[in-house]
Amino acid sequence: MRSVRSRLARLEQVNRQRTAPQHLRIEYGNLKTLPDDYIGPRHVVMLKQIPPEELPPAERAKPWFEWEERPGPEPVTTASLPNDEILVQVHYVETKPKG
Fold first, then answer.
1. I want to staple 50 with a disulfide (CB 3.0 to 4.6 A). Which of 11, 17, 64, 70 is the partner?
2. How far is it, in rounded angstroms, from Cα 19 to Cα 8?
3. Domain limits at 70?
4. pTM for this one?
């Protein structure tokens, strides 16, 4: 009976970890894209985080970045987000005039 209780306790603990509340992190920034005629794999890299004092007062509460598209596949990395964190990146892209 004791082993059944310990197994149930372990299952309840694992279930709590899977259903733990998740933290949402939103990053905003400008994205410099590759030329329109580029064909092939591409990935995005962060160039810098913009200090709050360089932002308009209404935007200072949000983390702002500068990103850039680069050719080729994304490099292999061992870094990862904590299990309870979801990262959303909002990229603002300047439209290019047609002509």
1. 64
2. 16
3. 22-92
4. 0.65
